[in-house]
Amino acid sequence: MSLGRKTSTVAVVLAASAVVMAGCSASTTGATPSGPTSAPVAPQAAIDVLNVLPPGASTGPSQRAMYDALNTVDPATLTDAKLGAYYKSAALDPAPADVVKTETPHTGVTIKRDKYGVPFVYGKTDNDTAYGAGYAGTEDRMFVMDALRYAGAGRVSELLGATKDNLAADADQLRQADYTPQEAEGQLDALSRSSAQGKALVGRLDSYVAGVNAARQAMCPTVTAKACPATYALLKVTPAPYTRADVVYAASLVGGIFGRGGGQEAQNGIFLRQLQQRLGDAQGRAVLADLRDAQDPSTPVTDAGTQPYGAPGTVDPAAVALPDIPAANAKQSRGPSFAVQIADGTGGIPTSARPAGSGLGSGTTIADLLHVPKEMSNALLVAGSHTTTGRPIAVMGPQTAYQAPNFFDEIALHGPHYDARGVAFANLQFAVLIGHGRSYAWSATSSSGDVVDTVMDKLCNTDGSKATVNSTSYRDGDKCVAMTGAPHVLHDSSGKVIATLPDMRTRHGIVQYRTTADRTPVAVVSQRSTYGHEPDSVLGFAQMNDPAAIKSAHDFLAAFSKVTFTFNWFYVDTRDIASFTSGALPIRAKGVDPDLPRWGDHKWDWTGFLPAAGHPQSVDPPSGYLVSWNNKPSVGTYSADDDWGWGPVQRVLALRDRVQASITKGKLTRADLTADMIDAATVDVRGAYVLPDMLALVGDDPALKPYTDLLQQWVASGAHRVDRARTGHYTDQQAIALMDVWYPLVAKQVLRPRLGPLLRSVPVGLDNAPSTNNRGSAWNNVASYEWVTRDLRSLLGRPVPGGMSQGYCGKGRLAACRTEIRQTLTDAVTALNTAQNTKNLAKWTYDKSLDDIKFMFVGATVAPIDWQNRSTFQQIVG
Questions:
Q1: pLDDT at residue 330 in the model
Q2: DSSP annotation of 805
Q3: How many other C-beta atoms can be found within 10 angstroms of the C-beta atom of residue 8?
Q4: Is this model's pTM higher than 0.90 or not?
Q5: Strand 874-877 with 479-482, pairing
Q6: Distances 113 to 58, 411, 495 between C-alpha atoms, Å
Q7: Which of 771, 816, 764 is closest to 785 using CA atoms?
Q8: d(CA 164, CA 158)
Q9: Which single residue of 128, 501, 551, 836 has CA 20 to 30 Å from 853?
Q10: What pLDDT score was predicted for residue 57?
Q11: What is the distance, to the nearest Å, from the Cα of residue 843 to the centroid of all Cα atoms in its chain?
Q12: Phi and psi at residue 262, to the nearest 5°
């Protein structure tokens, strides 16, 4: 292991916790022991923390305005004295003058609320604290908690109605986690049996559930009660009691959206087959490798240390199970089980055209329905050697989109093993998931570790007849065994059946659909390392909430070695900064190609899990800083099969470049680091890091000079999409309008000469502009940015580390490519002239409201805010 910093200490600390993953079989992922205890260290001083969470608590002033206002500030003018206008104090205890409400819902429990509505829960015992967390959390987020627990159970249609979108989202969730209530509660029973710590935590969860139900009864004795959210009466739904299983459903939902990566092998396999049909076997594989770019040596990493994981060795063709290209009529290659049966006789919802992972019916996924992208969070941490105070500073937070009320709930918890403030997802408020203690703070970004594989289990019939795609049994070694699982039946509030969703399982996991691979009928199965172990990560979070357990950065590493969902975790105290990438990362059998599906034979099964010491991690890196924006965590990490975007162009560059420049100038304050964050938050990544190569390729063309000059000026000014003065339009709106039309044309044209009609089959998106989804996040791991950059730089004769196997634009000929790209710019100008009804580029406009962040309404209406690529919940630490 080469960490490049405090290596021996980290290695010793983590060696004991290596059994967290290494000793687990595929069926015992959750059996994680307590983490190691580091050597005694001197007490640390208290840290000062500010935070913001729009729109805020259900009571108290909205934080929307202060969050949005930071986007109006010239970053160069921001000072520490001004931070209080954009962030609130995040003290662990409320000032007496700020307490606006105190209640005692249970003996041993006191809840104080400050002027922002944040609950501070004080418990005599840990169970009392958990009870108070459930009570206060329900007061704040009762309907949100219901929406998420129903969504996690694959039953949102029962709450919100059996529309195509809702049924599709339910089916999508069931493809990830299809637990019955008994199976969900069984996971808690297993956790309780795993260790004394596990037993104690499950006891807290039971107290949390009791607190939730006490608050629900107090608020909603009837749906027309004053304190009862009006949404229930509107939907004509009576709130049902909260159960232990609901905690597991919520954990599976959060982990399934934010804490997983991989599972796209079937789509990759079909795309490879199409490439081979068009280009031949060798070139088809070369093109797939070019576009996947799974280990680009020039991609920015958070930790400069080398932690190899996931790269294939010599692939054994016998392990690879490529799906056959679907026939024009999907029924010829799909089993009928993936048609949702509608109880009213309207028929089934047709299967999505995509092979897997896209939901059913309308194609709406659970993440789509909940208005949350997968990866949006960022973190900036600077060591004390580069700060004015000599203590580390951080600006960091998770990005989970924008809802009203937010899916995150801010809470402070105090008890014998609680002393933390921060946020937790609604339904999981029994512990602070991201926040701070008195002397340390922590946060996370999604890491997209490859924890999901696609397995092709061969179908069979137990009576010995020939298998078809309709078969419901599969090969387990030499045996033909029946799939397990039972149809998932949805009911309305009266108990009437409204729909039936399929549920089939093999020993590897949930069947996504049935088709053929190498002309053999197969079940396409999703194998997820955390399946059946959703609540186990609570062991790590409980440790982070316990002031006695976290005395140093090494305790932080040990705590998050227990978290099985895949996240990058960040830590700061008064001495150190640190990072750790968590996850139950499977070790694949030799010969398996991680980019493509594998056969379900036992010889290709996972052989274990990566030990904690092998995970990307750092303590006080030599660079003096850490930045992350869902980019590659460390050198040697092979990107998951569904993440094609770890190339040379990453939005994290906008953070890294600014932090490096600030460190070069001198010592940083918290305001300096915040300014770096907000300045990066409005950068158009294409404009800053791809457009220069596009313009160099276009070169000098008198006919295009007015437009290239316009774009050059935008690049020189930083390629921002921002209206700090709130004039109603972006400062560089003409350039932005042109870029938004031109870039997609370029991205397609670069690939078109080689791919032709297969351009439509590329299984990843070509762009991610702010207007794509109005959720705030943009420019995230977009593979086309690297394709365009690497190909054009190669044609221009510039160094391209790990370059592509062949030229794409113009089939590798500079003159041909230049002609093609110039034509795309001409086409973009023509299209824009037509759309704007003017040929005067000075009169072009861009409606910046197209980029606005729009809040998803879950019970309250909140006006949109200007776009900024920024964490939803954000902490300023120093």
A1: 35
A2: S
A3: 8
A4: yes
A5: unpaired
A6: 11, 10, 39
A7: 764
A8: 13
A9: 836
A10: 83
A11: 39
A12: 95, -170
Measure the CA–CA gap between 143 and 56, rounded to whole angstroms: 15
Which one-letter amino acid corresponds to residue 417? H
Task: Tell me what pLDDT residue 367 has.
Answer: 83
Task: Note whether 557 and 14 are within 8 A (CB).
Answer: yes
As given in the structure block, the two tokens for residue 547 are 């002031």
Tell me what pLDDT residue 375 has. 60
Reading the block at residue 785, the tokens are 């940015």
Whether the CA torsion 197, 199, 204, 209 is positive or negative: it is positive
| CB-based contacts of 102, cutoff 8 Å, min separation 6 | 110, 111, 112, 113
- 340 has which bridge partners? 349
Amino acid at 650: Q
Pairing state of beta strands 608-609 and 101-106?
unpaired
Give phi and psi for 190, each to the nearest 5: -65, -40
C-alpha to C-alpha distance for 832 and 610, rounded to whole angstroms: 52
Per-position DSSP letters for 588-608, written without gaps between them: PPTT--TTS-EE--GGGS--E
Q: Read off the tokens for 672.
A: 């300096």
**Residue 1, CA distances (Å) to 12, 38, 809 in order:** 12, 19, 41
- 455 CB-near residues (< 8 Å, 6+ apart): 506, 508, 509, 524, 525, 526, 527, 597, 598, 599, 600
Question: Tokens 């996972």 map to which residue?
Answer: 606
Hey, what long-range contacts does 457-466 have (CB within 8 A, 24 or more apart)? 457/506, 457/507, 457/508, 457/511, 457/522, 457/523, 457/525, 457/600, 458/520, 458/521, 458/522, 458/599, 458/600, 459/514, 459/520, 459/521, 459/522, 459/523
In this structure, the chain runs to a length of 878
Amino acid 699 reads G
Q: How far apart are CA 431 and CA 413, in angstroms?
A: 8
Q: What is the pLDDT of residue 23?
A: 33
Amino acid making up residue 726: R
Query: What DSSP line would sit under 823-854, residue for residue?
Result: HHHHHHHHHHHHHHT-S-GGG----GGGG-B-
Q: Are 775 and 402 in contact (CB under 8 A)?
A: yes
Q: Which helix (H) or strand (E) holds 553?
A: helix 553-560
Strands (E), 659-801: none
- Please give the torsion angle defined by the CA atoms of residues 402, 403, 404 and 409, in that order, rounded to the nearest 10 degrees: -90
CA–CA dist 715, 824 (Å, integer)? 19
Q: Which of 540, 542, 559 is nearest to 416 (CA)?
A: 542
The sign of the CA dihedral 810, 814, 815, 821 is positive
Q: Could you tell me which residues are beta bridge partners of residue 523? A: 457, 514
DSSP state letter for 442:
E
60 within 8 A of 118, measured Cβ to Cβ = yes
pLDDT means over runs of 10, the chain (878 residues): 30 34 32 38 87 89 96 98 98 96 98 97 98 98 95 94 88 93 97 97 98 98 95 93 97 87 95 96 97 96 92 96 69 36 36 29 72 79 98 95 93 98 97 98 95 98 95 97 94 86 94 93 96 96 97 98 96 98 97 98 98 97 97 96 96 98 98 98 98 98 98 98 97 98 98 96 93 90 96 97 95 98 98 97 97 87 94 97
In this structure, are residues 415 and 200 in contact, taking their beta carbons and an 8 Å threshold? no
- What's the number of CA atoms in the CB half-sphere (13 Å) around residue 749? 20
Q: What is the pLDDT of residue 295?
A: 94
Strands 434-436 and 418-425: antiparallel
DSSP 352: P
Handedness of CA 550, 552, 558, 561 (dihedral sign): positive
Tokens encoding 35: 């983490």
pLDDT value of position 168? 87
Task: Tokens 């000072």: give the residue.
Answer: 79
* pLDDT for the residue 8: 30
For residues 807 and 823, what is the distance between their CA atoms, to the nearest angstrom? 19
Burial of 510-532, coded b for 16+ CB within 10 Å and e otherwise, reads bbbbbbbbeeebbbbbbbbbbbb
The predicted structure's pLDDT at residue 357: 29
